[in-house]
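Format notes (please read before filing issues)

Several people have asked whether sequences and structure tokens are stored in separate files. They are not. Every record keeps both together, in the order shown below: the sequence lines, then the token lines. Line labels are part of the format and must not be stripped during preprocessing.
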Amino acid sequence: MTTNAQYLDQLMASLNTDTIYLQQAFDYYHQQYLGNEWAQQFVADSALISAELKQHPSAGLCDRTLGLKLPKRKTLEGGAIRGSLQRQGLLLPTGGERFRGCIVFPCTDGQGQIISAIGYRYARRIRAWQQEIIRWSKPSIDDYFRSGLSLVDELIYGKALH
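Then the structure lines:
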């Protein structure tokens, strides 16, 4: 039986533009992967990537082109999309992509919503400051509420909640 909280989460997820933008970003990564034989060969040959992930149906390639396909940040639509992806942690505050230079494997929940992903760098040379494996989790609705309440409190009282 579905509880009220579960129903609300499902309803919010289906109406949430953040969820839509996130899905579109991972769909774009997947299309880039399907069109790149080198990336597919990298996955097949990599000792780091498990056999289970090698068979992942939604593997993606983050090749730094997503930002070029999105509307400019100064437009209403571009600001909304980029802001959403930044709030979710997929885009960095600088505008760069979290999974830049990675083969990405998203993980979904029971409703098919992306909740996390793991990325493996495919560069031949990985710099000392770069992580070879990147993990990301979608912020929960509670995280958004806490962040929003903290901002409201800061605006009203001039201090942040801890």
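For reference, the curators noted about this record: The two ends are 36 Å apart (CA to CA). The first strand starts at residue 60 and ends at 62.
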